[in-house]
Design brief:
It comes from Phytophthora nicotianae P1976. This is HAT C-terminal dimerisation domain-containing protein. InterPro entries: RNaseH-like_sf (IPR012337). The chain is of the alpha/beta class. The chain has three domains: about 10-75 and about 420-465, no CATH class; about 75-165, Nucleotidyltransferase, domain 5 (2-Layer Sandwich); about 170-305, no CATH class. About 50% of the residues lie in helices and about 10% in strands. The chain is built from 19 helices and five strands. The protein has helices spanning about 15-30, 35, 40-45, 55-75, 120-135, 150-160, 170-185, 200-210, 250-270, 280-290, 295-300, 310-320, 330-335, 345-350, 355-360, 370-390, 405-415, 425-435, 445-465; strands at about 80-90, 90-100, 105-115, 140-145, 165. A five-stranded mixed β-sheet has the order 3-2-1-4-5, sandwiched between helices. The two termini are about 55 Å apart.
């Protein structure tokens, strides 16, 4: 009797392409170094077919070239928003670009500006224009740009005539740092403190509250540390009795009050980091924070000085709330690019049909409703009718923050460990591109990439032999 074998999809896929896909998965998603691909011990421990790192890199580049047309087809005819942010590592400044559509958000590219003069608004605009051409994104479909509230980004918004949505998380951190921490947190802030992140202060106060029940044990501890190292500096904290550092009762009360405020701000910050955040939710958070902290109202209000396109943001919020009737003339002009084209079926229908069918769709209630219930029902119908007949497109997909780019930079920092310090910029961009768009890397694309990259591998090897 023959042994029964379970039928799997691996039987119908080219084994070379399958091994390539699995090796790429290790390198892209598991931070597997390329040097391990050439290691004989690693090859013997893994069931994939062996291949050298040069071949794998060539196939990864070919995969990127095949994924880009898929993105072009996905973006075709879609309204979009550009999401970008920069990071400086040493003397090098990098710019990462995402594009957001109603289908989701996609990573496009990562650029490096080596020279300081290349960090101007003109260079950024030139680079963004190159990205639009590469992915065949039409400029007339650009709705807005989403970025930090920096002067360079504001200049970009004015020069390309596109509304700018300032990152809500960046704006909130600036407001908290400037309005609250300078007044209450100077004595309590950690050293050193990040320019925009105040979570260290919150964690430090929470840790103090955990230690507070045991601090009374040190009320009479006036001696220095008995096990003080001989090479300790003169300002070492262990040279002083711990009782000198204990907060007084009034200082303890101030810490407790500040910690309660920081808990509210910490919740707001975490909410601003979520992926499904919309501009309406941001406005709700800012309004509630302004109620609790009136000193932040000037920095979080709709027309704050830091906001570049306040009319556009206010118009989007009103549209998403169903308050189109309250749009001002300036807001209507700023959101004119958000009109959705009318459908032919809607244009041919009679305006009264929806009202008649809507009225007869619900059965008569068993009891007579109260006045308040009747009013709520009428208001609910009006809101539903206004939403169904809105002349503006659905705006819930527009990002309110650029935290997606910050997450990319965090992943990039984890990728560039001590085993990848010598990685080239091109290889880094290839890995990031495949990692962020891994759902498009199918076995079919990998098979085509293997065929397209084989000739390139042979040419590269022959050139290397001639050089040697």
């Amino acid at each position: 009797m023959r042994d029964k074998r379970s039928v799997t999809m691996d039987m119908f896929v080219d084994q070379d392409a399958l091994s390539t896909h699995q090796w790429m998965n290790l390198v892209v998603n598991k931070n597997f170094p390329f040097m391990a691909v050439d290691d004989g011990v690693v090859r013997s421990a893994i069931k994939y077919n062996s291949m050298n790192s040069r071949t794998l890199k060539a196939r990864m580049v070919a995969t990127v070239e095949l994924v880009e047309p898929c993105l072009q087809e996905e973006f075709k005819g879609e309204k979009f928003a550009l999401v970008f942010d920069g990071v400086t590592d040493g003397c090098e400044h990098s710019l990462a670009v995402f594009v957001a559509t109603r289908k989701g958000i996609r990573f496009l590219t990562l650029s490096s500006f080596v020279e300081e003069k290349s960090m101007t608004a003109d260079e950024h605009i030139r680079f963004l224009d190159m990205v639009l051409n590469q992915y065949k994104l039409e400029a007339n479909n650009l709705i807005a740009i989403v970025c930090d509230n920096m002067e360079t980004n504001k200049a970009i918004s004015r020069r390309i005539d596109a509304p700018m949505i300032g990152c809500a998380a960046h704006r909130f951190n600036l407001a908290v740092k400037e309005a609250l921490l300078k007044e209450n947190g100077c004595k309590l802030k950690p050293v050193p403190m990040h320019e925009l992140r105040w979570s260290g202060l919150h964690r430090m106060m929470k840790r103090y509250m955990q230690f507070h029940p045991y601090l009374h044990l040190f009320d009479r501890d006036r001696e220095v540390d008995r096990y003080l190292p001989s090479d300790a500096s003169q300002d070492n904290a262990r040279r002083f009795p711990i009782v000198d550092f204990l907060p007084t009762p009034s200082e303890h009360c101030a810490i407790v009050d500040l910690l309660e405020d920081m808990n509210i701000l910490e919740f707001s910050t975490r909410r601003l980091q979520e992926a499904d955040l919309t501009l309406v939710t941001v406005r709700d958070i800012f309004d509630e924070v302004a109620v609790e902290f009136p000193e932040l109202e000037g920095r979080l209000k709709m027309d704050a000085q830091i906001v570049e396109s306040c009319d556009f943001e206010a118009g989007v919020v009103k549209i998403m709330k169903g308050q189109e009737h309250s749009l001002t003339s300036r807001e209507k002009k700023s959101v004119s690019r958000l009109h959705c084209p009318p459908l032919e079926s809607e244009a041919d229908e009679c305006p009264g049909r929806h009202i008649t069918s809507e009225t007869n769709s619900e059965p008569r209630p068993k009891r007579r409703r109260t006045t308040q219930e009747f009013q709520n029902a009428v208001t609910g119908r009006a809101v539903a009718r206004e939403k169904s007949r809105s002349k503006y497109m659905d705006l819930s997909w527009i990002p309110a923050t650029s935290v997606e780019v910050e997450r990319l930079f965090a992943k990039m920092k984890c990728m560039l460990g001590y085993l990848r310090k010598s990685m080239s910029k091109k290889t880094l961009e290839v890995i990031l591109f495949l990692r962020m768009n891994w759902d498009l890397v199918t076995n079919e694309i990998t098979t085509k990439a293997v065929r397209n990259a084989r000739e390139e591998d042979i040419v590269d090897e022959e050139e290397c032999d001639e050089i040697e």
